[in-house]
Amino acid sequence: MNQPRWVLLGHFCELTGFTQKAVYALIQKGRWMLSREYKKVNGRYFINLEAYERWIETNG
Q1: Is the pLDDT of residue 40 over 80?
Q2: CA gap 6, 32 in Å, rounded
Q3: What is the side-by-side strand order in the sheet with 6-8?
Q4: 28 found inside a domain
Q5: Residue 46 sits in which domain range?
Q6: Structure pTM?
């Protein structure tokens, strides 16, 4: 089974070791863009794993 493109923030943190606080900082500083690296749906943050991998390869 393929990995989903969008995962909830908590699952993203489990997969990567990032803290929720670190993710919020990336969003607040504008390093992650809405609808590219993350989305907020019904008050919950979803992270795009494909965009995260591209971000790590170019900015990490």
Answers
A1: yes
A2: 14
A3: 6-8, 44-48, 38-41
A4: yes
A5: 6-59
A6: 0.91
